[in-house]
Specification:
InterPro entries: Amino_oxidase (IPR002937), FAD/NAD-bd_sf (IPR036188), Protoporphyrinogen_oxidase (IPR004572), Zeta_carotene_desat/Oxidored (IPR050464). The protein is of the alpha+beta class. Among the domains are: 173 residues, FAD/NAD(P)-binding domain (3-Layer(bba) Sandwich); 104 residues, protoporphyrinogen ix oxidase, domain 3, CATH 1.10.3110. The protein is built from 15 helices and 22 strands.
Length: 469
C-alpha cells in the first residue's frame, strides 16, 4: 500500500487554513497535513479581540459577499462548508463619507473604487476634467499592458478625482497611493473593460454591467461571533496538525520531496514532506525559496509592503453621525486615513451600556515615520483628529487598543500579475510540488486569500497524482 501524502503548509493565516480544508476535502484519505505557524496565534490578519468587555476586530472586519463575476465569494462558500452560514451578518448602516475640505460628504454612488461612471454624481466631491475623456479611436489599455490606477484616471478625469476619490478609496484597502498601484491587480474588472472601451466612463460602466448586483443585496458581511470563529472552524475542520510557534527557517529539495528545518537554530527540527505550500508574505517566502529557486526568490522578494496601525476606542455615548465611517484623502493632512464607527455600522455590536466602538486606521505607504509614535500618542492624536472632523469634542475613551500590523499590506506596482505568473510558471516547470499562495501574490481581501489557498491546494493535489474526488 502506498504511503499517505505528507503536505506541509507554511503559514497559519486564512490562506493556509483554507488550503488545509481544501486538501482535507479533495486529497486522498489519510493525507497528512501539517500547518506551521511561526507565531502563537492562527489567523494572520483575522483577529477578534475584546475591548471594554465586548468583542471587536483588531484586523480585517468584513468580507465581500460576491465574487467579481457576481457569484458567491470564496469565503462565503467556505463559511457554508464550515457550518457557519447562520452567523453571517451584514452592516445596518452602509453609507460612508469622504473628508473633503475639512467636512464630511457622502461617498458618491456610481463609482468603481472611486472611479466615476457618471461624472455629474461626483461633482459635489471632485471636479472631473470631463473634456479629457475623449474617444481616441482605440481602447484605453493595449492587450497585456498595465498602468498605475492614478496614471489612467489623472489622464482622463484630472487630479481632483484621483486625490479626493480614488486615492482614499485605494488607501483604505491597500494603504498605498493610486499613482503607484497596478490597475490590473487592484481593479481587474476595470482593466478588462479598458482593453475594449475607448473612454474611462465607458470602461467603468462596462465593468459595472459585467457584474450586476441585485438591488438591496448586501455587499459586505462578517460573522456574529467574530472572524476568529472562521479561523478556529477552518483549523478544526481541516484535521491538520497545527504547529504554533514553529518558524520554518529553511527549505531544501530532496530526491523524494522536501526537507524543512523548523524551530530555533540550537534546537532545530528537520521534517520531510512530499509537497510544500508557502502561505506567508513575500519576504519570508523569498528567504525559503532562496535555496531551491533563487531566481524566483529574487522576484518574490521584490514585493514591498505598507505598515499600518489600527486604533480602537470605546467611547461613552459620543455624538456620532449615522455613517459606517469615513475615508481621508492624503491632501487633508491628517494622520488618520480612515475611520469606522463599529457600533453604528454593525447592529450586532451595539451595546446597552452606550459605549461606542470607533476605530481609526493610521499609516500610508512611504509614511512609516508616523507609526513611530507611542501607543499613547497615537490614541491621543486619533482622538484629537476625530473630534476635529466631527466638529465636537469626543469623550475620553473608557478603553483603548492599538494594533500594529508591520508589513501588512502588499503594494502591487504595474506588472505585478505578470511577474507572479512567471514565478508560478517557473515553479511548475521545476518544482511542481511547491506552491505559493496569499495576498502577496493574488490580492488583498479575505475572499481572494481563501481562493488563493484553495487554488494552490488543487495544484499540489494535481502534482502529487490527483484527488480522491
Amino acid at each position: 500500500m502506498a504511503r499517505p501524502w505528507r503536505v506541509a503548509i507554511v503559514g497559519g493565516g486564512i490562506t493556509g487554513l483554507a488550503a488545509a480544508v481544501r486538501l482535507r476535502d479533495r486529497a486522498p484519505a489519510g493525507t497528512e497535513i501539517t500547518v506551521y505557524e511561526q507565531s502563537g496565534r492562527l489567523g494572520g490578519k483575522l483577529r477578534t479581540g475584546e475591548l471594554a468587555g465586548g468583542p471587536v476586530e483588531f484586523g480585517a472586519e468584513s468580507f465581500l459577499m460576491r465574487d467579481p463575476a457576481g457569484g458567491e465569494s470564496a469565503v462565503v462558500t467556505l463559511v457554508r462548508r464550515l457550518g457557519l452560514a447562520g452567523a453571517i451578518v451584514h452592516p445596518t448602516v452602509g453609507q460612508a463619507a469622504l473628508l473633503v475640505d475639512g467636512g464630511l460628504r457622502p461617498v458618491p454612488g456610481g463609482t468603481l473604487v472611486g472611479v466615476p461612471g457618471d461624472l455629474d454624481r461626483v461633482a459635489a466631491v471632485a471636479r472631473p476634467a470631463a473634456a479629457a475623456d475623449r474617444d481616441g479611436g482605440a481602447p484605453l489599455l493595449p492587450p497585456d499592458a498595465d498602468v498605475s490606477v492614478g496614471a489612467l484616471v489623472r489622464d482622463r478625469f484630472g487630479d481632483e478625482v484621483v486625490d479626493r476619490l480614488v486615492d482614499p478609496m485605494l488607501g483604505g484597502v491597500y494603504a498605498g497611493r493610486a499613482d503607484d498601484l497596478s490597475l490590473v491587480t487592484t481593479m481587474p474588472a476595470l482593466a478588462r473593460a479598458a482593453r475594449v472601451e475607448h473612454t474611462l466612463v465607458g470602461a467603468v460602466r462596462a465593468a459595472q454591467a459585467a457584474a450586476p448586483r441585485a438591488p438591496g443585496a448586501p455587499v459586505f458581511g462578517t460573522l456574529a461571533g467574530g472572524l476568529s470563529t472562521l479561523v478556529d472552524a477552518a483549523a478544526r475542520e481541516s484535521g491538520a496538525t497545527i504547529r504554533r510557534d514553529a518558524a520554518v527557517r529553511e527549505l531544501h529539495r530532496t530526491p523524494t520531496g522536501w526537507r524543512l528545518t523548523v524551530g530555533p537554530t540550537r534546537d532545530a527540527e528537520v521534517v520531510e514532506a512530499d509537497a510544500v505550500l508557502l502561505a506567508v508574505p513575500a519576504r519570508p517566502a523569498a528567504r525559503l525559496l532562496a535555496g531551491p529557486a533563487p531566481e524566483v526568490a529574487a522576484t518574490v522578494g521584490g514585493l514591498d509592503y505598507a505598515s499600518v496601525a489600527l486604533v480602537t476606542m470605546a467611547l461613552p455615548e459620543p455624538e456620532l453621525p449615522e455613517l459606517s465611517g469615513f475615508l481621508v484623502p492624503a491632501t487633508e493632512g491628517l494622520l488618520i486615513k480612515a475611520s469606522t464607527f463599529f457600533t453604528t455600522k454593525w447592529g450586532h455590536l451595539r451595546r446597552p451600556d452606550g459605549l461606542a466602538l470607533v476605530r481609526a486606521s493610521v499609516g500610508r505607504y512611504g509614511e512609516e515615520a508616523s507609526l513611530q509614535l507611542t501607543d499613547e500618542d497615537l490614541v491621543a492624536t486619533v482622538h484629537r483628529e476625530l473630534s476635529k472632523v466631527l466638529g465636537t469634542p469626543l469623550p475620553a475613551p473608557a478603553a483603548q487598543h492599538v494594533q500594529r500590523w508591520g508589513g501588512a499590506l502588499p503594494q502591487y506596482t504595474p506588472g505585478h500579475l505578470g511577474r507572479v505568473a512567471a514565478v508560478r510558471a517557473a515553479l511548475r516547470a521545476a518544482q511542481p510540488t511547491l506552491a505559493l499562495a496569499g495576498a502577496g501574490y493574488d490580492g488583498v481581501g479575505i475572499p481572494v486569500c481563501v481562493r488563493s489557498g484553495e487554488t494552490a491546494a488543487e495544484e499540489i493535489i494535481t502534482a502529487l497524482g490527483g484527488s480522491a474526488a
